[in-house]
Write a structure and sequence with these properties.
The structure is a homodimer.
Chain A lengths: L1 E12 L2 E13 L4 E5 L6 H8 L7 E6 L2 E2 L5 H11 E4 L11 H5 L10 H14 L16 H13 L5 E5 L7 H16 L3 E5 L3 H4 L4 E6 L2 E6 L5
Parallel strand pairs in A: 3-8, 3-9, 6-7, 7-8
Antiparallel strand pairs in A: 1-2, 1-4, 4-5, 9-10
Bound molecules: adenosine-5'-triphosphate (2 copies) and magnesium ion (2 copies).
């Protein structure tokens, strides 16, 4: 479903060259539940942004469902993202001048749904994310850190995307809220969604079926989780 | 050193009233290392902002070193904060148009130090936070989430404040980076600093000497950590 071929990403700053990713080759099949772990600053978000078509690699290609994304123009990329991918950002990227409801319904706006249908889906999404529908009329900056994180998760899942990319989705959550989020991800995976999740939390990684380790911009390990 | 007397915080939205904190009474003595835990959305950040003099309570008082903060004007509050308190924000609050160095040196600007002295202190602070001095010339949005978190920690400690308030300082850090941060906090506590740290991570809470539990805006527990 997702194929990353020979991908590298370099940042050039002044005279310097910094390789955030080097020679990444990765296949993620349908219905996989993949966790990505690795030290801070070693390329996990960079890889997620490239898989999620939010950023372009310096070398190599990304195929989504067999489509070579390098051949798509910005408009086609944007449509593909909107249809197939839900993204939970590490820093949430909520829009403070819109209500929580308006934030969550963004992925639905191009689908020709009625407002009441969008509200119904938003309520369902926020509850699946372990949140509360009373938040819908608030602004994001009237919510706690962990509440905002759950709104970001709700926005990523509201459009029922085939692929969910979650960049550290439980970093600001207590254990009980993390459990609810992971139960939702497991349930979505069970009904056929593909999940790729960055996490620093080994307990969260245990909910996945495969763990990829990233170190210094390269894949340093690829294994099945071991609960011991 | 920090005395919270009968503090409550209410938010009024439309016809509704929401009590984020109720009847908080708390004493934090010099050289304490206090962890605050509790479910997401239950008032921990609200309490930290009030202790840190960034927000005013709806009822009650906050005393810092015996000073009744309600009697201070904004200028005096700001001076007291700058002198005595270092704050690590849950969302970092770094300024993207300034370099990392400029972000870290903010607390030092009113101290009449030379630029080379400020740079020396910033380098020391970022290394104590488990970061790297190569970040100093970058902008915050050129850093990973966990790197930005460590810059926020560096800024909080660079001015050698008596009180360090850290709101979930390790949420985006891997285990190794978290250890370095906690070692720094323990060392600062050992030389006399008072530390109040919100965390969702029970392992991080074990580094403290006292754990306060917050539930529904109230203190629901106050105990010594138990490693079992
Ligand atoms: N725009 C940029 N310019 C220069 N360097 C960058 C830029 N964006 C990212 N980097 C660097 O690329 C590296 C990888 O960053 P990335 O955000 O992918 O790390 P990460 O593994 O997600 O870390 P964390 O666990 O802290 O979130 C970091 O060292 C970072 O400083
Ligand atoms: N400006 C505001 N208007 C209305 N409600 C608010 C406002 N700011 C905070 N709240 C509410 O106050 C409650 C406590 O928020 P707070 O940020 O203190 O929680 P927290 O314990 O830090 O949570 P987390 O662990 O998720 O960071 C939340 O329910 C939040 O929705
Ligand atoms: Mg990251
Ligand atoms: Mg908080």
């Amino acid at each position: 479903l997702i194929e990353v071929v020979n991908v590298s990403k370099v940042y050039r700053m002044g005279g310097n060259e910094f390789w955030a990713l080097r020679d990444i080759n990765l296949e993620v099949f349908e219905r996989e539940f993949l966790a990505i772990m690795g030290p801070s600053g070693h390329g996990k978000t960079t890889l997620m942004n490239i898989i999620g078509l939010l950023d372009k690699p310096s070398t190599g290609k990304v195929f989504i469902d067999g489509v070579d994304t390098a051949k798509l123009n910005d408009d086609e990329l944007s449509k593909l993202r909107n249809r197939k991918i839900g993204f939970v950002f590490q820093q949430y990227n909520l829009i403070n001048r819109m209500s929580v409801l308006e934030n969550i319904e963004v992925p639905l706006l191009l689908r020709g749904l009625s407002r009441s249908e969008r509200v119904r889906l938003a309520i369902r999404a926020i509850e699946m994310a372990g949140g509360d529908k009373s938040w819908l009329s608030k602004k994001p900056n009237q919510l706690s850190g962990g509440q905002q994180q759950r709104v970001a998760i709700a926005r990523a899942i509201v459009g029922d995307p085939e692929i969910i990319l979650a960049d550290e989705p439980t970093g600001n959550l207590d254990t009980a809220s993390s459990k609810i989020v992971m139960q939702t991800f497991s349930r979505l995976n069970g009904i056929g969604k593909t999940i790729v999740m960055v996490t620093h939390n080994p307990e969260v990684a245990l909910c996945s079926k495969r763990i990829l380790y990233i170190r210094d911009g390269r894949i340093s390990g690829d294994e099945v989780p071991d609960p011991t």
